[in-house]
Amino acid sequence: MKELKPYHVILFALAVMLVLTPFVLLVPEDGFDIAGTKIHFLTKEEFLHPKKQEKKDILDLVAGVDTTDLDVAVSDSVLLEEAKSGKFLPPKKHVNHTGGDLGAPKGGELSEESTSTLHLSDAARENLCKFFAKMDVVATEKTKIHILHYGDSQIEGDRMTSYIRQRIQNQFGGNGPGLIPAMNVYQTNSFKQTYSSNFMRYNCFGGTKLKNRRYGAMGSAARFTEEYYDSSTIANMKSVKEGWIEIEPSYKAQSRARTYNNVKMFYTSCVKPCQVKIYQNGNLIHEDSLIHDGKYHMLPLTFSSNPGKLKYVFSSPVSPTICGFSLEGDYGIQVDNIAMRGCSGTFFGYIDQTSLSRMYEDLNSELILLQFGGNSVPFFKDSAAVRNYVSFFKSQIRTVKRLHPSAAVIVIGPSDMSKFSGGIYESYKFLSYCVNQMKKAAGNEGAGYWDLYAAMGGANSMPAWVESGLAGKDYIHFSPKGASIASQLFYDAFEAEFAKWKLQLTP
C-alpha cells in the first residue's frame, strides 16, 4: 500500500473544498429538491458566518421563584403504621358517611406582584372575575368546584397540574387529585392504579376509538369487553365476564392530593345488567347494580377518612364504559389533570356532547385550562398553517363555552421548543407567531392567555433551561424541577389577578 504523505492529505482536502464550493455559493437557503426529496446543504452565509449557540441568562428569572412552600410527602411506612392503628380499616358494611370537614384551606397573604401576567381582554377579565367570585367562597360555603387542566405531554403524569393543585388547594381549600382516568397509562406520583388485563383503553385524541364517542370529560375511557353497537348482538350476549380496577392513594403525592374521602365513578353505555362489588383494603364493603339504560351515570361513595385501597370488580356479559373516577375531599377546589399525549387540543368535537355536558355539570367545572400548541409547532410550514391551526383551536374554546357557559377559560400556550439546526439548538421558526396568534384568538373568544413561552425567557431560552437541568435533552419537556418553576410562574400570575380583584372589593 502506498504511503500517504502530508501533502497528499492537503491536496485531497483542497480538492474536496473545490468540489463543494459551488454548492456553498449556489445552494438556496431552504435547500433544493432531488426526485421529490428536500436536500439541505451549508449555505454561503452559514459558511462565512457560522451560527453560535445563543445562551440566555435565566438565572434571575428562576432564582426568585419560590417553590419551597410545599408539604413533604410522608413515607409509606408512616401511612402503614396509621393503617395498622385502624385509621383506614373499613366498617363491616359500607355506609356513605363523612364529617364534611376535609378541604379546609391554609390561606395566607396574596401578592399582586408577578413576573408574568395573564393576558385578558375585557370579556376574558369579566369571565375570570366571575370565577374568582365562586372560588372566593368555596371554603366558607363548603361548596366544591373543579378546574379542568387539559394539556399535551407537557402535563402528563400530573406534571405542572400537581404543583398548581397544591398551591390552589392550600390557599383556597380542597383535597384529592380530582379526576383520574379509568385506565391510567402515564407514570404518576399522585395516585396508584392497577386494572385487570382485559380492560381496554379508548381515546378521542388517538388510538382506539369508541363508536358512540361517550368518553366523558377526560376524553378517554375503558371497557373490559369490546364495544358492541348492534342490539341483536348485545341481546344474545349471555356469558358473564369480569374486570376490575383498583385505586389507592400515593404517598409520594403532594399532601393535598394523597388525602381524600369522596370517591366518584363515572360510567355510561351500560346496556346489560352489571354487578359491581367494591372492596376496601380487601374487605367487601359495597355491592350494587349499575343502571343499565345506556345513559351517563355516577356512582358516589363517601368515607369518614381516607379509604386506602379500593377495588371495583365488575361482572357483566357486556362491559359498561368507565369514564373515570374522581378522588376528592368534602369541599374546596379540585384541579384535574387531563393529559393527552400527542394532542393538538382540537378534540372536543369528537366527544359526545350530551354526556360531556352532563359530566361538566356534575363536576361543577368552573374553569378550564387549555395547554396546547406544542405538538403542532414542529409541523408548521408557513404562517398560513399557523392561522389554520389557531382558527380550529379557536372553535374549541367556543365548544367549551357552549357545553358549560358558566366556565371561564384560560389558554396556556406552548413553551419554547428547540430544534437542532446548523450545529445549534434554536426555537422553531413559527413558534413566536403561533403564540401571538393564540393569544389574539383567546382574547377574541373571551378566554385568558398565559404566555409560557415568554415566561421562560422567550426565543431560544430552552437551551438555558436544559443546561440548568430544568428541561430534558429533547429540548421540549420540563424536568420535574423545571415543571415546578413553570407552574409557580403560572400560579403567581393567577394569584396576582385574584389579589387585584379582591382588592377592588375592599371599600
Q: Secondary structure elements and their pairing?
A:
Blueprint: H1 6-26, E1 32-34, E2 37-39, H2 44-48, H3 59-63, H4 76-84, E3 118-119, H5 122-135, H6 138-141, E4 144-151, H7 161-172, E5 178-180, E6 191-195, E7 200-203, E8 220-223, H8 231-235, E9 241-249, E10 262-268, E11 274-280, E12 283-290, E13 297-302, E14 310-316, E15 321-328, E16 332-339, H9 353-363, E17 365-371, H10 383-403, E18 408-412, E19 418-421, E20 424-427, H11 431-444, E21 448-450, H12 452-455, H13 462-467, H14 480-505
Parallel strand pairs: 4-16, 4-17, 17-18, 18-21
Antiparallel strand pairs: 1-2, 3-21, 5-15, 6-9, 7-8, 9-14, 10-13, 10-15, 11-12, 11-14, 19-20
Helix pairs in contact: 7-14, 10-11
Number of strands: 21
Q: Nearest-angstrom radius of gyration?
A: 27 Å
Q: Main β-sheet, in a few words? A: 6 strands, mixed
The best one-word shape is globular
Summing up helix and strand content along with how strands pair, one would put the structural category as alpha+beta
Low-confidence stretches: 78-93
Distance between the termini: 96 Å
CATH architecture of the largest domain: 3-Layer(aba) Sandwich
CATH superfamily of the largest domain: SGNH hydrolase
CATH fold topology of the largest domain: Rossmann fold
| Total domain count | 2
Helices, by number, come to 14
Sheet with most strands: strand arrangement: 3-21-18-17-4-16
CATH class (first level) name of the largest domain: Alpha Beta
- Tell me the β content: 15-25%
How helical, in percent, are the residues? 25-40%
Please, what is the average pLDDT? 88
